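Lecture notes, continued. The same structure-token format from the folding unit now serves as the input rather than the output. Read the line below as a description of shape only.
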């Protein structure tokens, strides 16, 4: 299993970013996926999730209406579109493969992460 995130960067508050996670080494379309984040000095926080078919999507309350998770099973790629970014969104963002065939927040594997910094 390999997960490679990209798309992070420095953005002003109110701005947008799109994170990308390219997956390999497993049957991507069979598994739910999640995005997590970790801010400096804090624990890992779940952000958003998507079931294997892409229809069912789940969001942490603070990102609802601002972030959109999606996937392209033909490209083995997971996305996180982030709008109206806030300084409190600053964190390292990780994509993660769900442990098991049913969507959950359980992590089987996660990538190395991509850094998002939102300036005020």
């Amino acid at each position: 299993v390999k997960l490679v995130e990209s798309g992070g960067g420095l953005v002003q508050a109110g701005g947008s970013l799109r994170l990308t996670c390219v997956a390999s080494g497993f049957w991507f379309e069979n598994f739910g996926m999640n995005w997590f984040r970790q801010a400096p000095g804090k624990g890992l926080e779940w952000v958003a999730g998507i079931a294997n078919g892409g229809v069912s999507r789940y969001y942490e309350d603070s990102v609802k209406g601002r972030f959109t998770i999606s996937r392209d099973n033909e490209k083995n790629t997971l996305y996180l579109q982030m709008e109206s970014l806030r300084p409190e969104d600053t964190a390292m963002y990780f994509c993660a493969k769900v442990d098991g065939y049913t969507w959950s927040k359980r992590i089987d594997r996660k990538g190395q992460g991509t850094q998002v910094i939102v300036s005020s």
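Point for the exam: The CA atoms of residues 3 and 111 lie 5 Å apart.
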